[in-house]
Every structure is written in structure tokens, then in C-alpha cells.
Design brief:
Length: about 425
């Protein structure tokens, strides 16, 4: 398989990268409009699936966690460069990824986020944290979890910083993380993977009209309660008014004939968020659902960044924000000359928060190359970053970190002198 085709296939199938599924991709098309209950009926779990997951006999990538939704299991998966096996080792009860370089030294840097923080598709010693640690000659902790939202990463930061204190936090935000904040049950918009069941999780509700956000805990906070996801009536009671479910039902109905009722429902939902829109075709229905979903997601990330900033100031910590993107986003945004998440970049700049934009770092380097941007990106991506991509990240971060670390890491202390 050519590398570019492998990149395209892996970007959707890879663990830790749930993607939005719309309408006909989720279920059989009956030709009739569906409602929330009909949609949920198609995505229920079986007791056998849940039994096997809790017993560690199926879906080996993850394990249930009442507070965060899921954590990761140590293991080996054939998802690496050139179809190699990647080794993942998670130490301790709550499973931070293995530290190897300079782990005997005090750790000043903790990292939080998603699969781009976890460094999916490379082995333990190939992560950008370990590349940084080797260069800075001090350890860097990795609390990244594949598939997590900004909100889940924020909750983990608040928890871990009480027991594994750091001076500097690297907080990574990935393109899909904005809408992930709104997911109460990821299975509503992303199929369970053969290696990863999609769990319920802590999430946020937003009111765009009144510019408010409400934090919500995991709707299935015990293993026993998780079995509700096998029963239609219980599942419907949990999620019948769920925001993301309404978005996904709208996408589903956009594939039906004459879904006039669906048009009205989406116009009403948009209006409650202060967005006036006219929907009179299936195309405008799906577009309105996308617009509302993205705006709600971006707003939620802004509010969570405010909470991260407040936490850092209260606890005398520094935060470096990292914006991560898949290859498809970088290529498309470069060609179109626009970015759908520009409001987040503007928000961070307005707040004058330390930030490194990996999209811009890639574009700056690409301008030194000849050829197509896809060929350039093939150097670094196999879905997530390959080992070379992790080196790219580490050295993209380096100078920002050096500005923020005090005292400087050993390699940058002038008192050591030099050997001519």
C-alpha cells in the first residue's frame, strides 16, 4: 500500500481518533425520518460486549474509568510505521505513559491531552516527550489519552497536579477535541472500534445564546450503571435530550426524503442557541447541524481554556498550549487559505496565552520544500505522527519551553562551561 493511501485509511480507522459519522454511515437507510429513540436503538451494546470489556477479554485498547470515562491498557498494536508493532506501557494506577529518559530526576513538566499527547502509533521511547526529555536532560510526564476531549484532559490535569506537581504544563488541543467536549456518550457519533468500546464520559453543555457552559459528570459513573446501555428505554431516558444526539439525528434525516419535521427541529435547536437559520433542503439541514455543532464545540473549548488558565494562576503554574492537527486538516486548510477553528487561535492570542500552533510550524517548514503538501506531510504522518513527526514536535516545542523554564535545563546552563 502506498504511504499516502495508508495515511488516508489510518486517519479514520486509528484508535484514539473518533470521527463524526453522519446519517447513512451509522445505520441502514429506511427512507423514513427517524427520531432519537430509533437512532439509539441501532447503537446499543450487548451485555456480552460489556462483560468482555470489563473482564479484559475484548476491546483491549481501553478500560472503564468512572471519573474520566476510560483509561488505556498497556499492549502492542500493529499500527506503527511500515506496519510495525507499537508498544504502549502505562505505569501506575491511573496509567501515565512510561517515562524512560532521566526518570530518576525531579519532573517539572507534565503533559495533558489526547492521542497526539499520548503519541499514538509510536512506541514508548519514541514519543515527543521522550525526545524532549533526552534533549533537556530531565523527565517529561505523559498523561495523554487517545480519544479524550479538552474537558477530560482538564479534569485529569486538576486531579494529577494535586499529586504529581509540575511547574510547567503542556496542554495539547487537537482539531476534533472541541466537539468531543460535548459528547456524553461517544458512541452516539463514533462507532466502537474492534479494539475500543466507546464509553460514556464527563462532558459539558453549552448555551451559545447566553454564553454559558455547564459541567456534567459521567452519566454512567459505575460499572453497574454502564449496563443501561444495553436497554433501549434506559438509554433513551439518559440521552433523549442530548445535544449531540439531536445533531446526529439531523444528519441522519438529511439523507431521507422530505424530512420537513427535521427541518423544523433543527431551526428550533439553532434558535435556542441564538442562531437564526433557514432550512428548506437536506443540504441546508446538514450544514446547519454542522455549524451549530462546531460553534458549540469551539465555545466550550474557550470556556475550558479559561478554567485551565484560572487553575494555573491559582496554583502558580505555567501553561504552554499546543494546537495539533491531522495531515488532512493541514493540507486542506493550506489549499483553502482558511481554518475552521480560527476563533480558537484568535481567542488564545487575545488572551496572550503561550501557544505553539503546529499547523503554522508545518506550513513554515513546507515553504522550504518543492512539491505537493501531501508529499511533505507523508514524511511525518501515518494517521498520527510517526517517529520523525514526534521529533518534529519536540523541536517545535523546544524554544517555547526554554523561554518558560526557570532555571534553564542543564544543557542550557552557562556555568557548565564548554569544551573547545
Amino acid at each position: 500500500m502506498k504511504r499516502r493511501q495508508f495515511l488516508k485509511n489510518t486517519a479514520m480507522a486509528t484508535l484514539g481518533m473518533p470521527y463524526i459519522l453522519k446519517g447513512k454511515d451509522r445505520m441502514q437507510i429506511s427512507g423514513k425520518n427517524i427520531d432519537a429513540k430509533a437512532y439509539l436503538k441501532e447503537i446499543l451494546y450487548t451485555r456480552e460486549e460489556i462483560d468482555a470489556w470489563f473482564a479484559g477479554e475484548a476491546f483491549p485498547f481501553s478500560k472503564y474509568h468512572s471519573r474520566f470515562g476510560w483509561l488505556l491498557n498497556s499492549g502492542r498494536f500493529q499500527d506503527g510505521i511500515d506496519h510495525s508493532y507499537s508498544t504502549y506501557t502505562y505505569a501506575g494506577e491511573d496509567g501515565e505513559r512510561l517515562m524512560s529518559n532521566y526518570r530518576e530526576k525531579p519532573c517539572r513538566i507534565n503533559t495533558y491531552g489526547n492521542s497526539y499527547t499520548q503519541c499514538h502509533q509510536v512506541s514508548d521511547h519514541e514519543t515527543w516527550q521522550e525526545v524532549l526529555a533526552a534533549h533537556l536532560q530531565e523527565p517529561v510526564r505523559n498523561f495523554g489519552i487517545g480519544g479524550w476531549s479538552v474537558y477530560q484532559a482538564y479534569l485529569r490535569m486538576c486531579f494529577e497536579e494535586q499529586r504529581t506537581h509540575s511547574e510547567l504544563i503542556i496542554f495539547n488541543i487537537y482539531e476534533d477535541d472541541h466537539v468531543r467536549n460535548l459528547d456524553s456518550w461517544r458512541n452516539i457519533r463514533a462507532n466502537k472500534h474492534p479494539a475500543h468500546i466507546e464509553s460514556t464520559l464527563p462532558y459539558v453543555k453549552v448555551d451559545l445564546k447566553n454564553q454559558r457552559m455547564v459541567e456534567c459528570s459521567n452519566p454512567c459513573p459505575t460499572q453497574k450503571s454502564f449496563y443501561q446501555l444495553c436497554d433501549l428505554e434506559k438509554t433513551y431516558a439518559l440521552f433523549k435530550d442530548d445535544f449531540v444526539l439531536q445533531i446526529m439525528v439531523a444528519h441522519q434525516n438529511a439523507h431521507m426524503e422530505n424530512p420537513n419535521k427535521a427541518y423544523q427541529k433543527m431551526m428550533m435547536l439553532s434558535k435556542t442557541h441564538g442562531i437564526e437559520t433557514r432550512i428548506d433542503t437536506n443540504e441546508t439541514l446538514s450544514k446547519a447541524a454542522d455549524t451549530l455543532h462546531r460553534q458549540a464545540g469551539l465555545f466550550s473549548t474557550e470556556k475550558i481554556i479559561e478554567k485551565i488558565d484560572s487553575f494555573a494562576k491559582k496554583n502558580n503554574k505555567k501553561v504552554l498550549y499546543i494546537l495539533s492537527y491531522p495531515a488532512r486538516y493541514i493540507a486542506r486548510s493550506y489549499k483553502e487559505g482558511s481554518r475552521w477553528d480560527q476563533s480558537i487561535i484568535d481567542f488564545i492570542q487575545h488572551k496572550k496565552l503561550p501557544c505553539l500552533d503546529l499547523y503554522q510550524e508545518h506550513i513554515n517548514e513546507f515553504r522550504m520544500f518543492k512539491g505537493a503538501i501531501e508529499d511533505y506531510l507523508d514524511r511525518y504522518f501515518i494517521g498520527h505522527y510517526n517517529p520523525l513527526g514526534n521529533f518534529f514536535c519536540a523541536y517545535a516545542f523546544k524554544d517555547k519551553l526554554l523561554e518558560m523554564l526557570d532555571p534553564k535545563p542543564d544543557p542550557y546552563k552557562r556555568e557548565h562551561g564548554s569544551i573547545e
